[in-house]
Amino acid sequence: MRIYNKMMFVCYECKRIITKKKFIAEIDITYRCQLNCTHCYYKHHENIIEKSDEEWFSFFDELYLGGVRFILLVGGEPSLRMKLIEYASKKFQFVDVITNGQIKIPETIKCRIFLSIDGSESVNDSIRGVGTYKKAINNYRRDKRVIINFTITENNIDELEKVLIIAKQNSIKSVVCNVITPNVLDNCNKSILSVEIRSQIIKELLRLKMKHPKTLGLSKAIIKWYEDPDHTNYCYWKSNVLHYDYLFNSKYCFSDLDCRCCGCFAGASLSTKNPFKNKT
After folding, report:
1. In this structure, is residue 90 part of a structural domain?
2. How far is CA 188 from CA 181, 225, 260, in A?
3. How far, rounded to the nearest angstrom, does the alpha carbon of residue 187 sit from its chain's CA centroid?
4. In this structure, is residue 20 part of a structural domain?
5. Is the peptide bond prior to 67 cis by the omega test (within 30 degrees of 0)?
6. CA geometry: angle at 218 spanning 214 and 220, to 5°?
7. Quick check: is 57 in a domain?
8. Residue 229, domain extent
9. CB atoms within 10 A of CB 36
10. Mean pLDDT for each 10-residue chunk of the chain (280 residues)?
């Protein structure tokens, strides 16, 4: 399956270079979320009327006609708009969803699920709220669609190996990591990592890659990407992916994240895998 996915990516990337039409879209399908995680970049809004399911279905249809085949559904919390996940899974060739795991996405829906867990139970719940760990694990243990999505901060790097073990114990195939990225509006002050802390993170990632090579889903190239956080010159995810908010407006990236301090797994993964790195 991985080989097939890579082959399809190369084929679509060749087509994108020729036609200039992007084939990947990242979309906030809701601004709502049940949680208020301490490290979340997403700014929640009040009194917003969301688009109807029918409007979203039409929007997905337009994206497909425009050449989109890979789609990432985020938010907010996308599981709050389950009908949209279901429709997208039938419309697009590849569908990824990032979720906090508090609402189980039915196994009948074909997608890849990035389940956000940021430590063992006590640490995760201090970040995401009491009871969130158990609910997420109970919903998704032994689910072959699932990859754990771990956000590394200055305070939880020692928890990563525990989460790798948790993944193995619950038959979850792998763990990927983001390094916390500040919002531009924070001017890199809120969550900026010092050179020393980032160096410690890189050493720990390399150590764990040696110890848990199959479970830690980061290549050495991705870890190298994290070592130097400034990706203002090149990021496939920022430049060659369509980004939309919950009102169908184009946006900068996941948010107004600061590319000088980046630790985005999506950016690291596609930028390091892209065989046509210098072609935009």
Report:
1. yes
2. 8, 18, 9
3. 22
4. yes
5. no
6. 105
7. yes
8. 2-38+46-273
9. 10
10. 81 93 97 87 72 98 97 96 98 97 97 97 96 98 98 95 98 96 65 88 98 97 94 92 96 86 93 70
Residue 170: which CATH number? 3.20.20.70
pLDDT digits (tens, 9 = 90+) for 77-131: 999 999 999 999 999 999 999 999 999 999 999 999 999 999 999 999 999 999 9
Q: Are 143 and 176 in contact (CB under 8 A)?
A: no
- In SS3 terms, the chain reads as CHHHHHHHHHHHHHHHHHHCCCCEEEEECCCCCCCCCCCCCCCCCCCCCCCCHHHHHHHHHHHHHCCCCEEEEECCCHHHHHHHHHHHHHHCCEEEEEECCCCCCCCCCCCEEEEECCCCHHHHHHHHCCCHHHHHHHHHCCCCCEEEEEEECCCCHHHHHHHHHHHHHCCCCCEEEEECCCEHHHCCCCCCCCHHHHHHHHHHHHHHHHHCCCCECCCHHHHHHHHCCCCCCCCHHHHHCEEECCCCCECCCCCCECHHHCCCHHHHHHHHHCCCCCCC
Number of domains in the chain: 1
- pLDDT tens readout for residues 150-175: 999 999 999 999 999 999 999 999 99
- Is 184 within the bounds of a domain? yes
